Amino acid sequence: MATLSIDAERLLGRLRELGQIGRAGDGRLIRLAGSDADRAGRDAFVAWLREAGLDVAVDRIGNIFGIWRDRVNTDEAPVLLGSHIDTVIDAGIYDGSYGVLSGLEVIETLKAAGFAPARPVAVAAFTNEEGVRYAPDMMGSLVHAGGLSVEEALATIGTDGTILGPELERIGYAGPEEPGFLKPHVYVELHIEQGPVLEREGVSIGAVENLQGISWQRVVIDGAANHAGTTPMSMRRDAGHAAARVVTFLRDRAKNANAPTVATVGCMSFEPNAINVIPSHATFTVDLRDPDEGRLRAEEAALAAYLRHLAGAEDVTISVERLARFEPVTFDRRIVELVEDAARNRGLASRRMTSGAGHDAQMIARIAPSAMIFVPSTGGISHNPREHTPDAALVAGANVLLDVVTRLAAE
Amino acid sequence: MATLSIDAERLLGRLRELGQIGRAGDGRLIRLAGSDADRAGRDAFVAWLREAGLDVAVDRIGNIFGIWRDRVNTDEAPVLLGSHIDTVIDAGIYDGSYGVLSGLEVIETLKAAGFAPARPVAVAAFTNEEGVRYAPDMMGSLVHAGGLSVEEALATIGTDGTILGPELERIGYAGPEEPGFLKPHVYVELHIEQGPVLEREGVSIGAVENLQGISWQRVVIDGAANHAGTTPMSMRRDAGHAAARVVTFLRDRAKNANAPTVATVGCMSFEPNAINVIPSHATFTVDLRDPDEGRLRAEEAALAAYLRHLAGAEDVTISVERLARFEPVTFDRRIVELVEDAARNRGLASRRMTSGAGHDAQMIARIAPSAMIFVPSTGGISHNPREHTPDAALVAGANVLLDVVTRLAAE
């Protein structure tokens, strides 16, 4: 079994084929959860599952499972692989799809080789990981792990005014299974890094040992609109300036800290947004991440204290809304070591790392030992048509997953 | 003549009547240059000019003049009063209209009192002072003063895709006179302050001795979009953060300077403007004003130097587009002193001041001795439905104008 390897052409071919499904008229890849494009992607995936001879199951939140089991192992908890196939707007072809199709590829490879696993091996495509159309993100895996009721999830209203439940029914993926029906023995998710570290260091495999905690907040600052020419600097209540102070505060703090904390202000808007009017309102988002919950809380507290100070110093009113909050996740040490072993046996350099992005694995980690495997992202680019991982690196990652699954499925 | 005063009810009544013309369905006052609402406002003004027995003239850029002259003085250069009657979106009723209607009021008062001026007295409503629909602002007075050709002005494409020339024809205000046909002896513009100084100091009359220079620039910063969770702080090229640095730089510099410089960033936008993506682009405007040209240039140079520094320090590309530039204007000292005298004689407190906003007077000052008179703005608020000046203050300002015109028209 030492030389068993996945079928590179089959995996890469499916990745490209799925990557052509959901192209908009202008060529952009847009496969938002519950959309017609999502249906087309799901249909292709289910067809591949059936071709591979797997049992296909769909649960009420639309998570799709392809299960390889036999009469001997059918009562054992499965080794679960997977990720998601929904995308952001104008996406690349790797994010999510690579993990899902590699899971299927690993199963087909083991099956064709006559491997007799001690427990089922299954691959999942979780609904709405991206959260672009329906919030929160990682919804399907969150529901699977029991962190959100399926009723609440199905009632989610989308950015386009649609409701997720009826949309899943419309596209034929409101399945009969109760979410969580398949309780995994372990969960392993293969994914592109979506960051620059592996490529920069020339390392092929990331053995992901933990995942950053994420804190998303929306901050609204209210000042007073006044004429830009006639209002002395000392009499201004400039909401835009106060917002800029927060941006530089967060940047300086994160950059000067001897810690992996990252802080980002991605959205910003001013009102009335006129060249000669002092902004009365500024609205912006704060994305704070840290793999340590204590540090993440300290960063949130530091921001809150700064906002209090700023409100007084600038005579503005500041309100904060929490948009999302996930505690850091520590992955299963034993699986992480299996990933390192597998890489070493294949002659691939690996390093332990933290996932900066959120992934379905962080949800499934609530109910089963879990870990992730990363492969390099060229230029660290993701959520973008320029998202890219070289073919050889994709194949290497899938082979490491194959070796890890071979060990786990024999338990 | 010492006790001659304007007809307060007539002036205030017309202000309120004009303020009801151009109301949108939702009640907002929107009288943009060249619009149907502008036509309705112009029609009302012209009707009042004719009622008052004035000669009405309209030039090719749509400037309207009401001229009071007789056979004796018809060859003399007129004392010109005026302002504009176009408005911003969701405007108050005072900005511009107060000066135009007060000019008419002064003429009617002098005429009714049997005053025989040594030269004509005229009132102008200049086209498109606000510049909301067609750039640049103060267009009609700029064309009148020869600073912009009428052909170029008429070819201006609006924010709604319309062209000013055809729009003026459509509303019936593409007149026959060549712009500049009426060369004034002097020009006096009465206006609300649009700032907080007079109210704060309890002063009734601003004798406006100069007008700030204005520098408008648009700055575009290009960085790189990357994942907010996976990109270390040290590897970021964050255009949003760089933009925030400029905002705080300008604020700190203007606030700490022992000078009347004001600096405002009124417009700001990030791209892609997503909570978990580092901004790749930031676009913002810079409004710099100072009554001293040397200082204004120094501020522009300081900004340019800071942007060069920032481009290197943050590994971003920065481009700057000049949107507008007006040198500071010094008004005519003799007229300013006449304003102070008139206020003193009426028992009104006055102070010399700088106009922070741009006004038609700055254009007419290129061709004739000019000055402005300010009255207090409650709360300093302008370009807003809450724009307000108490009736008594409006009447006081118009009476000061009356006294100044009485002196100037006797010359």
How many E strands of chain A? 14
Low-confidence stretches of chain A: none
N- and C-termini, Cα separation of chain A = 16 Å
CATH superfamily of the largest domain in chain A: Zn peptidases
Helix and strand succession of chain A?
A: HHEEEHEHHHEHEEHEEEHEEHEHEH
Q: Could you tell me the radius of gyration of chain A in angstroms?
A: 23 Å
CATH class assignment of the largest domain in chain A: Alpha Beta
Backbone shape of chain A: globular
According to CATH, the fold-level topology of the largest domain in chain A is Aminopeptidase
Oligomeric state: homodimer
Query: Which CATH-level-2 architecture of the largest domain in chain A?
Result: 3-Layer(aba) Sandwich
Protein traits:
homodimer, 411 residues, alpha/beta, Aminopeptidase, Alpha-Beta Plaits, 2 domains, 5-stranded antiparallel beta sheet, globular, metal ion binding (chains A, B), Bact_exopeptidase_dim_dom (chains A, B), hydrolase activity, acting on carbon-nitrogen (but not peptide) bonds, in linear amidines (chains A, B), Hydantoinase/carbamoylase family amidase (chains A, B)
Textual characterization of the structure:
Two copies of one chain form a homodimer. With 411 residues, chain A is an alpha/beta fold. Chain A folds into two domains: 8-212 and 329-409, Zn peptidases (Aminopeptidase, 3-Layer(aba) Sandwich); 213-326, Alpha-Beta Plaits (2-Layer Sandwich). Chain A is 35% helix and 20% strand. Chain A has helices spanning 8-19, 36-51, 97-112, 139-144, 150-154, 164-170, 197-201, 239-256, 293-314, 333-345, 360-364, 391-409; strands at 55-58, 64-68, 79-83, 121-125, 186-192, 205-211, 213-222, 262-264, 268-271, 281-290, 317-326, 329-330, 350-355, 370-375. In chain A, strands 1, 2, 3, 4, 5, 6, 12, 13 and 14 form a nine-stranded mixed sheet that branches. In chain A, a hairpin with a 5-residue loop joins strand 1 (55-58) and strand 2. In chain A, helix 10 (333-345) crosses helix 12 (391-409). The first copy, chain A, is globular and about 80 Å long. The model of chain A has no long low-confidence stretch (mean pLDDT 96). Chains A and B meet through helix 8, strand 8, strand 9 and strand 10 of A and helix 8, strand 8, strand 9 and strand 10 of B.
